[in-house]
């Protein structure tokens, strides 16, 4: 049984060397192929002098080399740092400097963007380039992916308690921070998810999401754990995803709400659910009309509604059998995790009492790289530890407010730092947004708090609509008035004809939206 | 009309490439290779194509393959303007 990340691939190769492991466009690798590519690359990393625990960043679109590089870092006793391919050089620079990246793997198309970045990264010694062209960079050695020597890989020195990866995630303040994941975090995360998704070697799992995102990485790790085939795609139009599902006979599809919303608006060819066994949502609440539309388009596929935060990899899921009974629930803890709902003093909440979601167990990550202060805010001693145990156990305090009903199902209420405080009441943005999900004529809706001279904050509704006019705004306000207590009714509606801004993980960027309305009521006193 | 140059200028302006597009050849890969090009930004590219080239592009006509490289995009635009 594999304990280290790369052993997921090596073990599957021992069981079925000829099974298809990875597919990208016309390229297809068996588990035996993938293992030898990982071994060759890991041995090249070692030859270049990468030492145990050093960081190897990978800044490339999704392609075979990207996956190979991540797993090769593991096989070389190093640590991989997947960098979202949509980031700009400024954000890449932050990551390379923040965790003292030793080696960068990137493509010939991208390396030109990094010439000034490289000079500002004293720890960076090597850049390995995928693609043909001669490049020289000041201050670093340039290696070619195509020139990796054939080498013999010695056995790994690390154990599963050692770090395997750093994933960068945005917080409510400051620059993105690096969540340090151990081999055990990732491998056990894959095991927990594969267990409830009932993944087998027959699966073909589409990798749509960025691998820099824990949920995106999970499609690859679960796939390799069970010996299934991971199919990579860089999509541009939502229809590209549907075409890939059909062409590759995909059995499992994972996406985030903004993409699901787009997918639910498209025509789906008949019969996709002949092979599509399940679909999963995470990264935000799936609006009801979207879920209903998706289920109608693929009645044979089982919907899994999931919740997780990078700091604890994955936390909860709602079993598909429960979706009809409680479609708004985020479910229960994933296998081998315990989810607690606690008060500010750490005491466990009563049923239906709102409290903070706390995750304990094997998925709890190792903290934020080089950031003890922000780590101490999120990683705290687990509540309920028997007093006789003198060592602390750290749990992740999510910052998310949830409640647990009498039957043990969890419901998301809101995030502390997105919570709107208006006229003395706390208002969760989702409470406002839910009223307008499925409202005729609007495609996306977000509620944020804008500083207001008399109310503290005022609720502002930002919507995406194909044709926005005053009549639509009036109808929205009318609907809110009809369904919400007066203090929750938005003071202002702002319409956008283009999709709302996203953060690099594809979630709606609430912070940017909130910033955009910061001065809205500056003159209202 | 030099379609290739028009397309490169459109890419440069719509994606904010600050002149980088002028270094592109027909073989330059776009989707995946350009950090600036994603499912949101492609809307700006299409809008600018419609505005500058006087063509109408339906959502159904394009997919990731259209944007695989400069060459595939130029090929698509050629079918629209002739």
Tell me what you see in this structure.
- The complex is a heterodimer of chains A (525) and B (82).
- By secondary structure, chain A is of the alpha/beta class.
- Helix content of chain A is 28%, strand content 26%.
- Chain A is built from 15 helices and 26 strands.
- In chain A, the strands form 6 sheets. A 9-stranded mixed beta sheet of chain A has the order 2-1-11-10-12-13-14-15-16. In chain A, strands 4-3-5-6-7 form a 5-stranded parallel beta sheet, sandwiched between helices.
- In chain A, helix 11 (288-297) links the parallel strand 13 and strand 14 (302-307).
- In chain A, helix 1 packs parallel to helix 8, helix 2 (31-47) packs across helix 3 (64-75) and helix 7 crosses helix 8 (214-226).
- The longest helix of chain A is centred in the first third of the chain and has 17 residues, at 31-47.
- Chain B has 82 residues and is an all-alpha fold.
- Chain B is built from 3 helices and no strands.
- Chain B is globular and about 25 Å long.
- The termini of chain B are close together.
- Chains A and B meet through helix 9 of A and loops of B.
Features:
heterodimer; A: 525 residues; alpha/beta; nine-stranded mixed β-sheet; globular; B: 82 residues; mainly alpha
**Molecular shape of chain B:** globular
Please state the overall shape of chain A, judged from the principal axes of the Cα atoms.
Answer: globular
Query: Total number of helical segments of chain A?
Result: 15
Give the DSSP E fraction of chain A (strand runs of 2 or more residues).
Answer: 25-35%
Oligomer: heterodimer
Structural class of chain A: alpha/beta
| Helix-strand string of chain B | HHH
Largest sheet of chain A: 9 strands, mixed
Helix content of chain B: 40-55%
The helical percent of chain A reads 25-40%
Radius of gyration of chain B: 11 Å
Please report the two chains with the greatest interface, counting residues with C-beta closer than 8 angstroms to the partner's C-beta: A-B, 23 and 21 residues
Strand content of chain B: under 5%
Trace the largest sheet of chain A across and list its strands: 2-1-11-10-12-13-14-15-16
Specify Rg of chain A, calculated over alpha carbons: 23 Å
| Distance linking N and C termini of chain B | 11 Å
Largest sheet of chain B: none
Q: Residue ranges of chain B: pLDDT <50 for 5 or more in a row?
A: none
């Amino acid at each position: 049984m594999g304990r280290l990340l790369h052993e997921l691939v090596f073990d599957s190769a021992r069981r079925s060397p000829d099974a298809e492991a990875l597919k990208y466009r016309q390229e297809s690798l068996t588990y035996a192929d993938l293992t030898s590519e990982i071994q060759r690359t890991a041995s090249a990393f070692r030859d270049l002098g990468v030492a145990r625990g050093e960081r190897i960043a990978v800044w490339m679109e999704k392609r075979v080399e990207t996956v190979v590089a991540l797993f090769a870092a593991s096989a070389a006793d190093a640590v991989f740092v997947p960098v979202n391919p949509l980031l700009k050089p400024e954000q890449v620079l932050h990551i390379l400097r923040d965790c003292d990246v030793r080696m960068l793997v990137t493509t010939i198309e991208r390396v030109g963007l990094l010439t000034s970045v490289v000079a500002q990264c004293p720890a960076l010694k090597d850049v390995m380039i995928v693609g043909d062209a001669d490049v020289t960079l000041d201050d670093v050695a340039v290696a070619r992916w195509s020139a990796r020597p054939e080498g013999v890989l010695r056995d790994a020195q690390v154990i599963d308690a050692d770090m395997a990866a750093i994933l960068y995630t945005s917080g409510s303040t400051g620059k993105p921070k690096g969540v340090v994941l151990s081999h055990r975090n990732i491998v056990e995360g894959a095991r927990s998810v594969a267990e409830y998704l009932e993944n087998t070697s027959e699966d073909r799992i589409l990798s749509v999401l960025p691998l820099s995102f824990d949920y995106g990485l999970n499609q690859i790790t679960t796939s390799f754990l069970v010996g299934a085939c991971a199919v990579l795609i860089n999509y541009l139009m939502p229809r590209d995803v549907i075409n890939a599902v059909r062409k590759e006979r995909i059995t499992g599809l994972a996406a985030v709400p903004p993409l699901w919303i787009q997918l639910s608006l498209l025509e789906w060819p008949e019969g996709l659910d002949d092979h599509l066994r399940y679909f999963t949502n995470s990264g935000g609440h799936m609006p009801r009309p979207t879920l209903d539309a998706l289920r109608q388009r693929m009645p044979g596929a089982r919907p899994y509604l999931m919740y997780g935060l990078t700091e604890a990899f994955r936390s909860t899921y709602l079993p598909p059998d429960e979706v009809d009974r409680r479609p708004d629930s985020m479910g229960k803890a994933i296998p081998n995790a315990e989810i607690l709902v606690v008060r500010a003093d750490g005491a466990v909440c009563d049923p239906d009492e709102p409290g903070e979601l706390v995750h304990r167990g094997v998925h709890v990550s190792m903290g934020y790289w080089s950031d003890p202060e922000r780590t101490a805010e999120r990683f705290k001693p687990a509540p309920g530890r028997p007093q006789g145990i003198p060592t602390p156990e750290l749990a992740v305090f999510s910052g998310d407010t949830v409640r647990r009903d009498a039957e043990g199902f969890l419901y998301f209420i809101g995030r502390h730092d997105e919570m709107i405080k208006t006229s003395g009441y706390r208002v969760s943005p989702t409470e406002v947004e839910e009223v307008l999900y499925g409202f005729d004529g609007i495609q996306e809706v977000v509620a944020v708090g804008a500083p207001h001279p008399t109310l503290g904050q005022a609720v502002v509704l930002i919507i995406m609509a194909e044709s926005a006019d005053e009549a639509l705004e009036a109808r929205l306000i009318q609907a809110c008035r009809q369904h919400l207590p007066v203090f929750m009714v938005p003071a202002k509606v702002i319409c956008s004809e283009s999709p709302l801004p996203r953060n690099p993980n594809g979630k709606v960027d609430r912070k940017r939206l909130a910033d955009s309305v910061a001065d809205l009521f500056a003159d209202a006193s | 009309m030099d379609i290739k140059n028009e397309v490169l200028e459109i890419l440069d302006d719509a994606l904010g490439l600050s002149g980088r597009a002028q270094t592109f050849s027909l073989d330059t890969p776009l989707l995946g290779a350009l950090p600036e090009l994603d499912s949101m930004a492609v809307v700006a590219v299409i809008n600018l194509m419609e505005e500058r080239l006087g063509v109408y592009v339906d959502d159904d006509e394009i997919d990731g393959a259209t944007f695989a490289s400069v060459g595939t995009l130029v090929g698509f635009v050629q079918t629209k303007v002739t």
